[in-house]
Each structure stands twice: as C-alpha cells, then as structure tokens.
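Subject: Dickkopf WNT signaling pathway inhibitor 1

B.,
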Amino acid sequence: GACRRRRKRCLRDAMCCPGTVCSNGEGRARPGLGGLGVPPSPAVPTGQEGDICLRSSDCAAGLCCARHFWSKICKPVLREGQVCTRHRRKGAHGLEIFQRCPCAEGLACRLQREHGPADASRLHTCQRH
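Prediction pasted inline below.
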C-alpha cells in the first residue's frame, strides 16, 4: 500500500514514507534530514579568504592555503601582473611569515623587465607563458 506522509495517522515508522517517522501517532519529518529523506550533500571545501586552513584543498576555488604569521589561511591565487615570490632556494619557503599563493593557471612567476636596464627592485610578477 501507499506509505503515510507527514501529518497522516500512523502506528509505527514502517508505515511512513522515507524521511518520515511515526511520532505521537502522526507522520513527522525525520530529524536532521529536512523531511526530504536525502542526507546532506558531502562538504564542499568552502574556506573563504582569511579562513584558517591546513591545505589548499580546504579553500574555495581561486584560493590557496598559505602561511600568515603562525597559522595558515586561505589567500587568493595570484592573477596576471601581481607580484609573486620566486623561490631561489627550496628551503626559503619555510621561513616566510607572509606566504603568497602561486600564480594562477597558465601564468608563470617571472622577472619584470619593463623597468630599464638596471632594475634595482628585481620585481617578479605573474606573466603569461
């Protein structure tokens, strides 16, 4: 037979539709499922900018997990023309207190050349390959 919906009389849970329980002789939404009988969707990483994180997969799209003082937070991935950190020595990464994210997909961290022959600042920016 047809299952009993919410607010219909019932004797036990088995008489009720999925996602509904028999409570006080009446069908009620099963707690925690919003009455839809569908479990909540798996957690999507939604660490927003500034949220504490452990790894970049904890952060929303377009963000990476980078050190900030003594914790790590989600920071925006660098866009074209933004200053980036060029790591000459592999070990230098651990010493940064303010880590920058890498350049976005399709961009490379390169020395900016527009400043004339003797560029004292040696600024690196994200540039197209």
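Strands lie at 20-23, 26-29, 63-68, 71-76, 107-111, 124-128.

T.
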